[in-house]
């Protein structure tokens, strides 16, 4: 088998499900790829193989499998995440909606683990670490899926999760002034993460502003993730229509 003209990847037995004209490593249509012309200092056009892709090209590379089953499966996931995102955004910073959601039950264990993970860095970071880790974990997964597993659609899903984590934190931050939300383990007011953090920074009066900022940032990230996933699905559909 000839190596990919772009990344020099050589197909293996595990790549049997990938169309022969699609590179399993970088996702290009090999029979359509052309090297990029580069002009040297002497103004002579020299054609050399392209060794790097732009970030935009990288993030638009398709997963290894390009077939009807994976397309429809990802389409259903994308539609579900879209409805879920609009449900969160429509209801705003509502603890009953956000705290009672399935996603909150996913975020909570990672939030609690973040306290333990950041404990060696002092009390302030140990308390902030819960909120920080529930954001950094899906962001790290997004980077891993995109750069190490060549699965940008999975990366878009974990980016959506990162945005939802910001939304998940909004009611907790807004409650810093009142400290009324139920806490894990039945902890009292003294165990309220954001109540303590904002008190130490003398910013309790800004709790609602910070909560709204977290909610808006989360909403924007979720919309960007959905737009990214949609473009990947469009590109996959187009390739399928061409017989790849």
TrEMBL record:
Domain of life: Bacteria
Transmembrane stretches, start-end: 71-90, 124-148, 210-230
UniProt entry keywords in alphabetical sequence: Membrane, Transmembrane, Transmembrane helix
Protein name (record): Zinc ribbon domain-containing protein
């Amino acid at each position: 088998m000839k190596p990919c003209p772009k990344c020099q990847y050589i197909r293996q037995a595990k790549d049997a499900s990938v169309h022969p004209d699609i590179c399993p490593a970088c996702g290009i249509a090999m029979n359509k790829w052309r090297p990029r012309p580069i002009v040297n200092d002497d103004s002579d056009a020299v054609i050399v193989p392209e060794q790097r892709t732009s970030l935009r090209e990288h993030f638009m590379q398709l997963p290894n499998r390009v077939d009807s089953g994976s397309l429809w499966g990802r389409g259903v996931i994308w539609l579900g995440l879209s409805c879920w995102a609009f449900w969160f955004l429509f209801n705003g910073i509502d603890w009953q909606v956000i705290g009672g959601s399935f996603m909150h039950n996913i975020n909570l264990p990672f939030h609690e683990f973040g306290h333990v993970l950041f404990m060696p860095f002092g009390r302030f970071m140990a308390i902030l670490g819960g909120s920080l880790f529930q954001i950094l974990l899906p962001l790290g997964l997004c980077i891993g899926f995109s750069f190490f597993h060549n699965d940008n659609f999975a990366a878009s899903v974990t980016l959506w999760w990162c945005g939802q984590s910001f939304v998940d934190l909004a009611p907790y931050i807004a409650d810093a002034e009142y400290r009324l939300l139920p806490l894990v383990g039945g902890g009292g007011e003294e165990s309220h993460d954001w109540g303590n953090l904002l008190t130490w920074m003398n910013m309790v009066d800004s709790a609602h502003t910070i909560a709204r900022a977290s909610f808006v940032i989360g909403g924007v990230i979720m919309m960007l993730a959905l737009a990214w996933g949609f473009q990947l699905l469009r590109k996959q559909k187009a390739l399928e229509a061409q017989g790849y």
